[in-house]
Design goal:
By secondary structure, the chain is mainly beta. The chain is 11% helix and 52% strand. The longest helix has 20 residues. The radius of gyration is 23 Å and the shape is globular.
């Protein structure tokens, strides 16, 4: 009798545990998750370019994909819900290639730049929050390299292969160029070769970037005067306002985040080594060298690592957060106090599979979303998405 009673209690206990296990906390499920978006096309490659959180709490991801018909990368758009669950994806027409970040927004729509495989003409593609394409506009530029938001307009860094210029343009959401200025990369094929190799993915992927600092000056991270440099401009003067020179194609800025008063959070690379500097004083009206910036060396990062920098507020404390990829193939997050610029801690994402960072953004609930590439079975590139809650981050940073 006692044995039968114990068996009944065991069964009831097991049923109760199973019931609780199958009814997880929805809030917790949205706050922290790891997702890998696999498919059955084993010969296909997918990688993320950028990501934004949509008003419903979901995620819109712009990506690239391998093409058999072109040396360029194709365009891939996918969406996930607030729990990170796959919603939809589309392999965009093969004539639209080499999509670039950032994903931009205006008038309730999302936008990205890419180019045509035939003619290499820059295109501005409009999407809704589900990732459905609603318009496509021709832009008078070629080889788009980087984009950024400026109010309701967009900034575009492109490469003019006819005139051998790095070009910064202000573009309206209807595809019109409002203002534009180009700067010579230097004569000869030796300068252009690594640029073209970047676009056809046969060489180093350079950290092209464009933006605007707190003083109202525009900047681009790209090739100028034979060197990969950080260049400041007012989009009017013939010559740059200032330049932070790199080491030809072997050194320069990996990422730039303008702060206040001529201070920048930056990452630099120099002959495969990586340095992080959360408080670089840069004179944007002078010529200087990136190698003279005294950053913190991070030997655990892969050579010439891709780096992303975002400002993050956790509770009432402000941080500068760096994201990059380690030699052990994890995604590393490094936090610095935004007031003192002191190192505040680190956190690592990913296990089992190799992981590489692509994009990260703060979320509406105060957390962080990180998008990257993972390799299923060690060799099939797929998109992955991490969501980390504010509390989880606070436990890692002091």
């Amino acid at each position: 009798m006692l044995r039968k009673l114990n068996l009944i209690l065991f069964i009831l206990g097991t049923m109760a545990w199973s019931h609780c296990a199958n009814h997880s906390d929805p809030a917790a499920d949205k706050s922290n998750f790891t997702k890998i978006f696999d498919n059955n096309q084993f010969n296909a490659s997918y990688y993320p370019v950028d990501m934004v959180q949509t008003p419903d709490g979901g995620y819109l991801i712009l990506g690239g994909r391998s093409l058999t018909s072109s040396s360029f990368s194709g365009t891939y758009i996918m969406s996930a819900d607030a729990f990170g669950n796959f919603v939809a994806a589309q392999e965009v027409d093969e004539n639209l290639v080499d999509p670039i970040g950032n994903i931009l927004s205006a008038n309730g729509k999302y936008y990205f730049f890419c180019m045509t495989a035939v003619g290499l003409q820059t295109q501005l593609v409009e999407m809704d929050a589900t990732g459905a394409i609603t318009n496509q506009l021709n832009v008078a530029a070629s080889y788009p390299a980087a984009a950024a938001q400026e109010g309701n307009n967009f900034l575009l860094l492109s490469y003019d292969n006819t005139n051998k210029l790095s070009v910064v343009s202000k573009v309206s959401p209807d595809g019109n160029i409002i203002q534009s200025k180009g700067y010579a990369i230097g004569a000869g094929n030796d300068v252009e070769s690594p640029i073209i190799a970047h676009f056809v993915h046969t060489g180093r992927q350079f950290p092209f970037q464009v933006g605007k600092n707190s003083g109202g000056q525009y900047f681009f991270n790209g090739f100028y005067n034979y060197t990969f440099s950080l260049v400041f401009t007012d989009l009017a003067a013939k010559d740059p306002l200032g330049v932070v020179q790199g080491q030809q194609s072997n050194g320069g800025m990996s990422a730039v985040l303008p702060l206040d008063g001529g201070i920048y959070a930056v990452a630099t690379f120099n002959f495969n080594d990586n340095y992080l500097l959360p408080s670089a004083a840069i004179n944007s009206n002078a010529v200087s060298s990136a190698s003279d910036l005294n950053g913190n060396s991070f030997p655990e990062l892969v050579s010439n690592a891709k780096v992303k920098i975002v400002p993050v507020t956790l509770d009432t404390k402000n941080y500068i957060l760096y994201g990059s990829t380690t030699k052990s193939k994890q995604i590393a997050l490094y936090a610095y106090d935004k007031t003192t610029f002191k190192f505040s801690g680190s956190k690592y994402l990913g296990f089992s599979n190799p992981f590489e960072i692509a994009s990260m953004t703060t979320t509406a609930d105060g957390g962080l979303a990180v998008c990257g590439t993972t390799y299923v079975a060690g060799r099939f590139p797929r998109i992955c998405l991490f969501k980390i809650s504010s509390g989880n981050l606070q436990n890692s940073f002091h």
